[in-house]
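#dry-run=false #mode=assembly
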Amino acid sequence: MYGTILDCEYLSTRIHVTLNIVYRGVAMPLPEFFQFHSPTRVVYGAGLARDISTECSSLGATKYFIVSDRTIHEAGLVKPVIEGLSTDGIDISGTFFDVTQDSELAIVTEVANRARESGAEGLIAIGGGSVIDTAKGANIVFSEGGDLVEDYSGTGTLTRPLKPFVVIPTTAGTGSECTLAAVIYDRENKTKLSFTDRYLLPSIAVLDPEMTLTLPPALTASTGMDALTHAIEASVGIDASPLSDILAFGAIELIFKNLVTAVTDANDIEARGAMLIAANMAGIAFSHSMVGCVHAMAHTVGAHFRVPHGVANAILLPHGMEYNIEEGKEKFAKMAPLMGVATAGLSMDDGAKGAIEAVRNLTSQLNGLGILPIRLRDAGVPSEALPHIADMSIEDGSSFYNPREMAAEDLLVHLKNAY
Amino acid sequence: MGLFKDSKTFEEVLGGFFGLVGETPEVAERLLASNLVIRFTYTDPDVVLVVDCSGDQIKVIPGDTDMKAAVNMWMSSDTAHKFWFGKVNLTAALTRGQIKAKGPIPKILKLLPAIKPTYAMYPRYLDEYGFGEYKIY
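#status=ok
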């Protein structure tokens, strides 16, 4: 069924519909500049991860090193991939299953060294955001040598394509399989290092909904809300473009139609597939137009109170939309019908409010299933920390891309509402 | 061939301007709050300027390639010149590869609102300090 969802006819209809939704009759200025660069080959299909030798050999490599984590390995998700590749003549030169919850500098270096020592010609990452970011960082050192921090942290530091890199996501959230960034934690210096480069983009993204079937309901919900936050923030960010909008709006529609089903019926392969595609679309969108105040706040509560990223985004998303309602009004109003809001006869103001209400309803629905907190206090954040969270959030890198300039005192009002 | 005839001229123009920015309290306070040391490496003509915001006042050090800088930025001298007129979108320039940067880029982006007032200062500075021929944007 979803094998056809990405065909040309569907996409051209989608683009036509979305452009009309966003731009017809609306005096929405075009951006002064934008670039759209998404060279990652995306392949989709249920069961496809067991049969990717054609894709792997098309990259000119026949020896791959596999990167994953213990949970994924023990869930039995890696073995069929290896078996499929080995049967078809692709050599697995080594494996690494000890990726930690945050991508860590020491682990990245170890993966790069082990891959090089094994004689690998390319990397395959199987996992969620941490595994993928770890493999992205490792591919830099594996391909180019040198020191990851001294030589490559920053923007545009790479000068040529890296070694073949195949990604099989096992969550439908980060979209990291198609983004040009990686965040690596430097435990020794207690800092997060960012790497942004077009050469970090994976060569191939394999979207196989069967690889997400073991994802528990709570993680399905929080990662799905992460993807929704990517899409909504990408559409209103200062670097949004008509092309990133198409993907963001498409993702929003798919998430509203499929997230609750994917949570309540873990084996619904169509809902799982739609969520995987939505996360991918949202990932491509925010890889171009970035994210804003919701992520800035989520990064802060995540760093200080260990609130999982998707949970923090889910709690803060409607409040971040409230914060941006003036600047994001048109986009919010235009996305409302994609969220199931009946907008006929509504003013733009009411349409925008309808979109925020739809997000609240979605998180309330997931909260009603007992798998997602919708208040900061329920996620372990103390009330006395809110002013500090507001102060730290405006220092976060995402704050630069928010459509409304972020001020701590204004943000605090919304953090209190989220509490 | 770049707009500036030689490295000495460009170093005088931009180094002098950075010095002026460092003496402008409304901008300097916010730059000092970043605590960053930034090395700018310009090409055509070639100039290196280190802007040290880690102390009580902003120091501009020409030609220093040894000092450890948290952020390193590379661009043509012409791109830098145009930037100070407020005519270069930094995120777009990074995306297009006109400017390359190593280090914590979000910290640099956060400084953009702080330096906004300097875009109006730059053409006035060129006039007042005898560099009016370069007031082209």
